[in-house]
Design brief:
By secondary structure, this protein is of the alpha/beta class. The protein has one domain: HUPs (Rossmann fold), CATH 3.40.50.620. It is built from ten helices and six strands, in the order H-E-H-E-H-E-H-E-H-H-E-E-H-H-H-H. It has helices at about 5-25, 45-55, 80-90, 110-130, 140-155, 155-160, 180-190, 205-220, 225-255, 265, and strands at about 35-40, 65-70, 95-100, 135, 165, 170. It has a six-stranded mixed beta sheet with strand order 3-2-1-4-6-5, with helices on both faces. Helix 2 (about 45-55) packs across helix 7 (about 180-190). The longest helix has 29 residues, at about 225-255.
């Protein structure tokens, strides 16, 4: 009997991401250590599901699997909680496991400041251990929330394209999976998860989108809003990529023989390309 469908789904998503990582690496000699991939793990269902799938799939592909958990220091007992998450990750067989404490500033608001501090810590851990990739546990639901936030802010095409599946060091294997899948995967595997109270705190914009705005939209428009928003993100990403390519090509066309900008040629281009 095979694994639960939710477990099979998260493992397949991670397996595909790891295969892409291997394809992106230059040839390695047998004397070199296997490549290392880290999972960013908060202790929530999405990231614990990610960690479990990475621990299961990586050895089969000759990849070392580790993890990083970030202590933002924003809640009482956060340091102990981070150490508890790290202990669970080591139980899964992940090595190395880093606990990175950060100081969250105020620039851009609390959510943006925490995100910036987190990514700095993840990048630092990857550099320290020589990791070739860091996996993130964002799901289709997170993507839908990102698109809705972009719409509310009147953002452009690139912002409305949401989070990319691959962005340099970072990969998001779960963007085609919903949050229910990660929760079910954790439940059937007996994985302890931590529910961050900030995820339900209406002081945070994303929490309001998740627990207020999206449920209202689904009640008014019917089920499928999350899937539609995530699909919209991919369509916008295709458009943004095409515009970037067009703009790069047009940059050469709007310069004269000496390299000076020809404003008349520039004005003739669509505003989206300019």
């Amino acid at each position: 009997m095979g694994p639960h469908p939710a477990v099979a789904a998260i493992r397949l998503a991670v397996r595909r991401a790891l295969a892409d990582v291997l394809d992106s690496l230059p040839p390695r000699s047998s004397a070199e250590p296997p490549p290392l991939v880290l999972a960013a793990v908060s202790g929530g269902a999405d990231s614990m599901a990610l960690a479990s799938a990475l621990a299961f799939e990586a050895p089969k592909l000759g990849i070392r699997a580790g993890a990083v958990t970030v202590d933002h220091g924003l809640q009482d007992g956060s340091a102990d909680r981070a150490e508890g998450v790290a202990a669970r990750l080591r139980t899964l067989g992940l090595d190395p496991v880093d606990v990175a404490g950060v100081t969250v500033g105020r620039r851009g608001g609390p959510e943006a400041a925490a995100r910036d501090a987190r990514y700095e810590a993840l990048s630092a851990s990857a550099r320290s251990h020589g990791a070739c990739s860091v996996l993130l546990g964002h799901t289709r639901d997170d993507q839908a929330e990102t698109v809705l936030l972009g719409l509310a802010r009147g953002s452009g095409t690139r912002s409305l394209s949401g989070m990319p599946a691959v962005n340099g060091l970072y990969r998001r294997p779960f963007l085609l999976l919903d949050r229910d899948s990660t929760r079910k995967a954790c439940h059937v595997q007996g994985l302890d998860v931590w529910e961050d109270p900030h995820n339900r705190d209406p002081a945070y914009t994303r929490a309001r989108v998740r627990h207020e705005a999206l449920p209202v939209l689904e009640k008014s428009l019917g089920k499928g809003v999350v899937e539609a928003l995530a699909r919209t993100a991919q369509l916008f990403r295709d458009d943004a990529d095409a515009l970037d390519t067009w703009a790069a090509s047009a940059e050469q066309d709007v310069r004269d023989a000496d390299g000076a900008l020809d404003t008349r040629r520039l004005d003739s281009l669509p505003s989206a390309v300019r």
